[in-house]
């Protein structure tokens, strides 16, 4: 898991609970990272220009990771979960923009969100259609159950577990499993158990 994906997921979770009044959000911006201040007396007012980069980074990082990486989950979130989080975050940002119309950077920020939304809709549509990505994710959802079923399958089959057997024990059990046990006297000379192959005393003298 890359540090960039980790930062992007953290930002996205915060954006899901974004207050529609930017002045009350108590956000702390550190480069591409968003945090919420725990100090009630925090009086730093964030403007839209400061928010541009971390929000642009967050969505494009996750959109690219989902689209181009082979990761099944990012920070524990499946593609379905991330799509839901991004959808909610975009709604929260749009609600916030309604109260920021007097911000001089509102138009530029709106264009950024519109661009992000267009990319998001394409990703969402692709995911909701029958795509290889969705098939792989569905398979991974049930992978643990499938593996567990396979591991227990020998319980329902007439098989023995030879993994921990010594070679001689394995050979013996393998022969029994394939040929079955052969009843008969053992020829002391040849070691054979097939009664048809036991030599009598006359043959031995000859």
Write up what this structure looks like.
A hairpin with a 2-residue loop joins strand 1 and strand 2 (33-36). The N and C termini lie far apart (80 Å). This protein folds into two domains: 3-148, no CATH class; 160-205, no CATH class. The model has no long low-confidence stretch (mean pLDDT 76). Helix 1 (3-16) packs across helix 3 (79-98) and helix 2 (48-68) runs parallel beside helix 4. With 206 residues, the protein is mainly alpha-helical. It contains eight helices and four strands. Strands 1-2 form a two-stranded antiparallel sheet. A two-stranded antiparallel ribbon has the order 3-4.
**Run of helices and strands:** HEEHEEHHHHHH
Q: Helix proportion of residues, in percent?
A: 55-70%
Report the uncertain regions. none
- Rg calculated over all Cα atoms: 34 Å
**Proportion of residues in β-strands:** 5-15%
Note the overall shape.
elongated
- The main sheet orders its strands as 1-2
Number of helices: 8
Task: Quickly give the structural class.
Answer: mainly alpha
- What value does the average pLDDT take? 76
Task: Tell me about the largest β-sheet.
Answer: 2 strands, antiparallel
What is the count of structural domains? 2
Produce the secondary structure layout.
Blueprint: H1 3-16, E1 27-30, E2 33-36, H2 48-68, E3 73-74, E4 77-78, H3 79-98, H4 106-128, H5 132-141, H6 143-151, H7 167-179, H8 201-205
Antiparallel strand pairs: 1-2, 3-4
Keywords, separated by commas or semicolons:
elongated, mainly alpha, 2 domains
């Amino acid at each position: 898991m890359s540090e960039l994906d980790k930062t992007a997921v953290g930002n996205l979770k915060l954006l899901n609970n974004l207050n529609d009044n930017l002045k009350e959000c108590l956000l702390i911006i550190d480069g591409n990272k968003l945090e919420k201040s725990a100090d009630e007396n925090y009086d730093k007012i964030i403007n839209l220009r400061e928010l541009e980069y971390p929000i642009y980074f967050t969505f494009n990082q996750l959109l690219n990771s989902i689209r181009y990486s082979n990761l099944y989950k990012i920070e524990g979130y499946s593609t379905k979960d991330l799509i839901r989080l991004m959808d909610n975050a975009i709604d929260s940002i749009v609600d916030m923009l309604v109260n920021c119309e007097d911000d001089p950077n509102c138009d530029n920020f709106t264009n950024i969100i519109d661009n992000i939304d267009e990319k998001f809709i394409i990703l969402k549509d692709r995911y909701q259609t029958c795509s290889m990505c969705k098939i792989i994710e569905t398979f991974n959802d049930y992978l643990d159950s499938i593996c567990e079923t396979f591991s227990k399958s020998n319980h329902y089959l007439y098989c023995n577990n030879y993994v921990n057997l010594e070679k001689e024990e394995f050979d013996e059990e393998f022969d029994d499993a394939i040929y079955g046990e052969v009843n008969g006297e053992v020829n002391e000379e040849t070691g054979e158990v097939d009664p048809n192959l036991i030599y009598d005393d006359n043959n031995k003298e000859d």
